[in-house]
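Reminder to self: tokens first, then the designed residues, so the page reads top to bottom the way the pipeline ran.
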């Protein structure tokens, strides 16, 4: 590494990599280092469903969704090789909630009532369906690695390096590292995903009030067709996603197990998860219920008010937290990254050398 880095991003998931990308988009000569305890995109990003739908439960999240949707559309247009795939969308909810549904979804969704629903989907009495636009899904770990590869000529990546301590002073932010010598940077962004309680920063992050919740997504052993789209069960905060690249469907539902630890959470599906998922599937897609036999389990960070957190952890804004996206890390990452860089700009760094400076 040449010289003292201007900004260090801790966490090389989709958000951390987009923060690095946004810093360079703002200042092409910026010096950026990204550190991760594991490999790029190997945390929550590796297990992400990667679904983007144009909605937000409140005005703040809708604004973030709008910004992120435009970002991904532009990225996919300029880099058609990236694994970002447009997909159709059907939203299912009680007819009596139509006004709320229309408030929740962006105008770009162009929701329209439909009388025919995808094959295998049932509409219980009192429920209706809308078709919508603006939905896409991505292979998030592959996308994250591709973005990191694009950044590597100008960004220093330190994989398999654990940050063991964080302290801030007028001289900069000091990071103690598992590899030995510390790293001192002008600014540091903590984008740790669900690792809120890591010893190095747990006391700094605790006042934010974010919590970690288990996320469960079940694999349904039925091959989707090219015509299949995502099916969103709005009130249950659940969805069916045709995972074409893997040859099966994915069913994500809301698991209510809180305050779990990403280092100790059991990675496998248990009978309770299967029972909860099948109960919902029998209501809306009964033919798929018995094919729901396996899946993935991890966790994510959630903000107290359901709006992702971008907060200075020190008075001088040298140390910033970004994350707690409430299970929508991929969907909202571009907007959260942009907000993070805007906050960093309130603390102008001193000139530093970048990676390729000799």
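Designed residues (358 positions):
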């Amino acid at each position: 590494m040449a010289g003292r880095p201007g900004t260090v991003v801790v966490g090389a998931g989709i958000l951390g990599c987009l923060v690095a990308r946004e810093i360079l988009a703002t200042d092409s000569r910026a010096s950026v280092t990204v550190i991760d305890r594991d490999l790029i995109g190997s945390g929550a990003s590796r297990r992400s469903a990667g679904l983007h739908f144009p909605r937000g439960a409140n005005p703040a999240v809708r604004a973030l969704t709008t910004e992120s949707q435009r970002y991904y559309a532009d990225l996919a247009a300029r880099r058609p090789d990236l694994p970002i795939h447009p997909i159709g969308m059907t939203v299912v909810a009680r007819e009596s909630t139509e006004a709320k549904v229309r408030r929740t979804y962006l105008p770009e969704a162009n929701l329209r009532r439909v009388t025919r629903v995808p094959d295998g989907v049932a509409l219980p009495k009192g429920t209706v369906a809308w078709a919508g636009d603006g939905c896409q899904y991505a292979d998030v770990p592959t996308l994250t690695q591709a973005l990191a590869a694009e950044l590597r000529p100008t960004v220093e990546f330190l994989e398999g390096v654990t940050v063991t301590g964080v302290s801030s002073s007028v001289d900069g932010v000091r990071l103690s590292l598992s590899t030995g010598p510390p790293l001192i940077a002008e600014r540091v962004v903590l984008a740790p995903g669900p690792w809120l309680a890591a010893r190095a920063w747990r006391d700094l992050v605790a006042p934010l009030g974010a919590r970690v919740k288990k996320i469960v997504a079940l694999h349904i052993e039925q091959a989707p067709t090219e015509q299949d789209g995502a099916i969103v069960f709005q009130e249950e905060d659940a969805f069916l996603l045709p995972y074409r690249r893997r040859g099966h469907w994915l069913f994500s539902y809301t698991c209510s197990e809180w305050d779990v630890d990403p280092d100790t959470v059991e990675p496998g599906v248990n009978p309770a998860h299967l029972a909860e998922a099948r109960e919902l599937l029998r209501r809306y897609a009964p033919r798929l219920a018995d094919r729901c036999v396996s899946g993935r389990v991890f966790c994510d960070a959630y903000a107290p008010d359901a709006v992702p957190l971008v907060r200075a952890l020190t008075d001088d804004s040298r140390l910033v937290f970004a994350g707690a996206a409430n299970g929508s890390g991929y969907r909202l990452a571009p907007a959260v990254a942009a907000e993070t860089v805007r906050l960093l700009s309130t603390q102008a760094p001193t000139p530093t050398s970048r990676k390729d400076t000799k």
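The chain has nine helices and 18 strands.
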